[in-house]
Amino acid sequence: MRKKEKATFAAPNTNGDKDNKNICIRATIKALFRSGKKFTAKRINQLTHSNDARKAISVLRREGWNIHDLRQPDGCKLYWLDEEDRQGVLNFQESCV
Asked: Can you tell me the distance from the alpha carbon of 20 to that of 62, in angstroms, rounded to the nearest whole number?
């Protein structure tokens, strides 16, 4: 009987499609928050056709997004982006003629 040899190279990444899908979901959630509206995780899941809203919000917070939450009386959390984060920085250079 032959002895099985150890692998000399790493196996290919098999979850590349999953990573790409997560990036797309996070981009959609960013766009939702930039709209200035408030969302529950359930509503975000409905809009993105996923089940990862709370995970994506956690990742966005680690990336520096100032996402606030408030627990509602029914137990659901309402999430929104701080208004100061929605304003982009405009840098107009003066032109001297």
From this structure: 19
The continuous run of DSSP H or E covering 16 comes out as helix 16-34
pLDDT, tens digit (0-9, with 9 covering 90-100), for 42-83: 999 999 999 989 999 999 999 999 999 999 999 999 999 987
Rg of the chain in Å (alpha carbons): 21
Asked if the model's pLDDT at residue 88 lies above 60, the reply is no
- The conformational region for residue 88 under phi > 0 = left, psi -120 to 50 = alpha, else beta, is beta
Residue 79 and residue 73 in contact, taking contact as beta carbons nearer than 8 Å: no
DSSP type of residue 68: E
Alpha-carbon gap, residue 49 to 56, rounded angstroms = 13
**2's tokens:** 């032959």
- 36 Rama sector, left if φ>0, alpha if ψ -120 to 50, beta otherwise: left
Token duo for residue 21? 């899908």
Q: Model confidence over 12-30: pLDDT tens digits?
A: 666 566 667 788 889 999 9
